[in-house]
Specification:
The complex is a heterodimer of chains A (436) and B (274). Chain A is globular and about 75 Å long. In chain A, 43% of the residues lie in helices and 11% in strands. By secondary structure, chain B is α+β, with helices and mostly antiparallel strands. In chain B, strands 2-3-1-4-5 form a five-stranded mixed β-sheet. In chain B, helix 2 packs antiparallel against helix 3 and helix 2 packs antiparallel against helix 7. Classes of the chains: A alpha/beta (436), B alpha+beta (274). At the A-B interface, helix 1, helix 2, helix 3, helix 5 and helix 7 of A face helix 2, helix 5, helix 7, helix 8 and helix 9 of B.
Chain lengths: 436, 274
């Protein structure tokens, strides 16, 4: 029986000066790299396939399979791009990982690049996290100095250059093909697929794009084996992962557990929902995943079960909202975000998100009619599946799911002539002012 | 050429270009660099990027206007961003933003008359477990209240040294932009590895004795020969002496000692091209 929490990626976060090469190597860091360099690249791809590791950036695509799509024996350069553009509302796992132990990611980058036969890798990190970028830059410098990067790494004959590349503020660049355009120095707009990045990615060459947590999970798989990794988790969702708890809870933070833990278990561990209040709604994996309610507390948080419950595991960003929160206000704010971040390339998303905001704002002010709810559902129907990329789809998730579970609350805005909630009561500082 | 874009700036632009397989990949870093030099993206800056990269000004302009971090008007010494995406907004970000607007007498995306603070509401900054969050020059200020945020901007305006919650002493916005461009300062060792929320699960696991399975839990089949059953911990023991001897020349020692001696960036640059 596996323990309830299984710190692997987070296991060194509490060590002194955890971000340094010295601390990382003392904890066994870069031993997996040395081991990997004695294996054939294809063996590493098989290893990661066998481990069952699935992409931790939201989609859950099997990482080893993604690597396997890279053509071998071609004469084009291959590239690895790490998606460190963590921007999905609610998602806050990669940033603390890179701040605390950036070498875990760097070691993962080197092993993964070796496996896909890339000689140039990039960490595309969002620009709005200055200190994380400092720590990444320093870790890469240290890795070069120690011979983990550069030419003929540890006399293996393998060469790798690694660039830390800061973005400039655009949520859409977390979409993998938009990220490639951005990394090529263009507006970050998604590309038509096919061709897929594995065939024609960065500079039209074979490219793998993986999330930070996915790549950071590679060294422990190499060190401990595929079966060790697969001994954690559920049948189709293997391994441990970072669950991020935020919002109206007594113990917000990062909880590393085998895939399949439930929100009820996580809340029991962390001290529950804010005292004196009840869970109202939550996101399992960021704002682009349909909201769930208290009836879903026992859904195993793995890719399959959350899907069956009508949502998506996404980034495992568990945003918890209690009974003081107006769902209409919450959804309007997320919708304003999608409107702001729509790249403008395709009409359903560009125009659709604009109209969603207009309609929702009217409802929130109490100026709307019940027909506006039908209009919202109709708009969502015309955006979902008709947009160029997943941003448009994601924009519809909070709206359709909130209407499904909280239709009465939308209507209450109409009868009340505005929002019936006291926004102050939902704040953190309001809670502190409530007498115990 | 302006007084600010110098030959040195152009040389640094070329240095950025050399880090990438294709020159245009350096455009985003170049625009960050320009902001560190000029305080925002100027028309002249756009022309300069275009000339250096062999693009048209329209092509560069199209990129510069796409990304919210590139500013088209001068930014104050400190850029204060209040997260008002849903979770932070509900937890108090909206109240904080309103209080700061009142206190500073500015609206969204405006700068105080003394040129010290530019205030803007920002989208989710990946610190939701520390909500409500305020960013100063893209450093984290966690678990803010209206009062703490007012104190923060007052301290900044008074010229006091301000320490981020999970980060370094706050530098100027222009200095921050230079780091984002890919020219590290020497502040990576400042601040903690993690805040309390980051460590919440780990602390609990330590208290209860919970761990990941032992490395030998996996049986060695289907590992493709790449993995042995030897655990990382065991390996770490046998190779520790080797690691320690290597660390003697690690730059971590130099910086770890908090000396003022900067890392030889040219030599160890993670962004160096082959």
């Amino acid at each position: 029986m596996t323990d309830t929490l299984t710190p692997v990626l987070s296991d060194d976060w509490d060590t002194d000066r955890a971000w340094t090469l010295r601390a990382y190597e003392r904890a066994g860091g870069y031993q997996a790299l040395k081991k990997a360099l004695t294996a054939q690249p294809d063996e590493l791809i098989e290893l990661v396939k066998d481990s069952g590791l699935r992409g931790r950036g939201g989609a859950g695509f099997p990482t080893g399979m993604k690597w396997g799509f890279i053509p071998q024996g071609d004469d084009k350069p291959h590239y690895l791009v790490v998606n460190a553009d963590e921007s999905e509302p609610g998602t806050c796992k990669d940033i603390p990982l890179m701040l605390a132990t950036p070498h875990t990611l760097v070691e993962g980058v080197i092993i993964s690049s070796y496996a896909i036969r890339a000689t140039h890798a990039f960490i595309y990190v969002r620009g709005e996290v200055l200190h994380v970028i400092r720590r990444l830059q320093r870790a890469v410098q240290e890795a070069y100095h120690a011979g983990h990067l550069g030419t003929n790494i540890h006399d293996s004959g393998y060469d790798l250059e690694l660039v830390v590349h800061a973005g400039a503020g655009a949520y859409i660049c977390g979409e993998e093909t938009a990220m490639l355009d951005s990394l090529e120095g263009r507006r970050g707009q998604p590309r038509l697929r096919p061709p897929f990045p594995a065939v024609a990615g960065l500079y039209a060459c074979p490219t793998v794009i993986n999330n930070v947590e996915s790549i950071a999970s590679v060294p422990c798989i190499v060190a401990n084996g595929a079966e060790w990794f697969a001994s954690m988790g559920t049948e189709k969702s293997k391994g441990m992962t970072l669950y991020s708890l935020s919002g109206h809870v007594n113990g917000p933070g990062q909880y590393e557990a085998p895939l399949g833990i439930t929100l009820r278990e996580l809340l029991e561990l962390s001290g529950g929902v804010r005292d004196g209040h009840e869970l109202k709604f939550w996101t399992p994996g960021g704002s682009s995943t349909p909201i769930l309610t208290a009836e879903h507390l026992d859904v195993p948080l793995d890719y399959e079960a959350v899907g069956e419950a009508g949502s998506m595991l996404g980034t495992k960003a568990l945003q918890i909202f209690d009974d003081t929160t107006c769902v209409v206000r919450a959804v309007l704010r997320w919708t304003e975000f999608y409107k702001h971040e729509s790249c403008g390339k395709c009409t359903p998303c560009r125009e659709g998100t604009w109209w969603l905001v207009q309609t929702l704002a009217r409802l929130e002010r109490g100026d709307g009619t019940e027909a506006d709810l039908d209009q919202l559902v109709d708009l969502c129907d015309n955006i979902l599946g008709r947009s160029f990329c997943a941003l448009g789809d994601g924009a519809t998730s909070p709206i359709t799911s909130s209407i499904q579970y909280f239709r009465d609350e939308y209507l209450a805005h109409l009868t009340h002539g505005g929002c019936p909630f006291d926004a102050e009561a939902a704040t953190l500082f309001a809670a502190e002012r409530v007498p115990a | 050429m302006s007084a600010q874009i110098t030959e040195g700036t152009l040389a640094e632009m070329r240095e950025l270009i050399a880090r990438y397989p294709e020159p245009q990949s350096a455009l985003l870093p170049m625009l960050h660099l320009l902001q560190s030099v000029e305080g925002y993206v100027t028309a002249e800056g756009i022309e300069t990027c275009a000339a250096v990269l062999g693009l048209t000004a329209a092509e560069v302009s199209a990129v510069a206007t796409f990304y919210t971090m590139y500013k088209r008007r001068p930014v104050g010494t400190y850029y204060v961003g209040v997260c008002t995406n849903t979770l932070c907004a509900v937890m108090g970000g909206d109240v904080i933003f309103d209080r700061l607007k009142d206190h500073l007498g500015v609206g969204n995306d405006e700068t105080t008359d003394d040129g010290v603070i530019t205030l803007e509401h920002v989208e989710c900054n990946a610190a939701c477990d520390y909500a409500p969050v305020v960013m100063v020059n893209w450093e984290f200020f966690d678990n803010q209240t209206p009062e703490s945020a007012v104190q923060l901007v007052d301290d900044l305006r008074a010229g006091q040294t301000v320490q981020a919650t999970r980060g370094a002493r706050v530098c100027t916005w222009r200095e921050a932009e230079r780091v984002l461009a890919g020219f590290p300062d020497d502040r990576a060792d400042e601040g903690p590895a993690a805040g309390p929320a980051t460590l919440a699960g780990l602390k609990l696991a330590r208290e209860r004795g919970w761990k990941a399975p032992a490395p030998d839990a996996g049986r060695a089949t289907g590992d493709g020969g790449a993995a042995t059953k030897v655990g990382a911990a065991e390996q770490a023991d046998t190779t520790r002496a080797e690691s320690e001897s290597k660390l003697d020349e690690s730059p971590a020692d130099v910086v770890g000692g908090k000396t003022d001696e900067p890392i030889d960036v040219d030599k160890h640059s993670g962004e160096g091209s082959s």
